[in-house]
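From the shared-data thread, chain only:
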Amino acid sequence: MIARSSWTRAIVLILILIAVGYAIMQTLAGNREDVEIGKKAPNFTLTNLQGKTVQLSDYLGTGVLLNFWASWCDPCVNEMPLLNETYQRLPGVEILTVNMGEAKEKVSQFADRYDLKFPILLDQQSDVKKRYKIGGLPATFLVDDKGHIVEKISGELDSSNFIMNVMERIQPKPGRK
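Structure, as tokens:
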């Protein structure tokens, strides 16, 4: 009889621990931000090559082409001159690039070599990469002037015409609220 009572208590304790664990996991999962088309783009704070702190929310009211890249990624390298060519050609649209995990000196040398004009942010700890669930590079998100994700493009942006066309999708429209 004593053995059966101990066994029952052990089972009840295990069930309670499972229930608590499940509740904790659900709470943590509920705190994760969804990175989906139509949802608010997760805000972040990173440092640019000049050492200035930049937040995505600084660009509310502006469409943002948000590009994740690295200098070791050939398709990323291929699209950098194209992004540079289209930078500041469309009013109300900003190009922000986020370098994945490389040292500031290396990124700065790369930017100088290609004479890159657009803002380059450093995600040295891959925090933003994780928040945006970036798998392969390059990855580009189109964020409208209200801060919502309009589209995610995986892979190389292969022409300046294509880049201009996608930027037009996030260009603020006069009179739009």
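Residues 57 and 159 are 28 Å apart (CA to CA).
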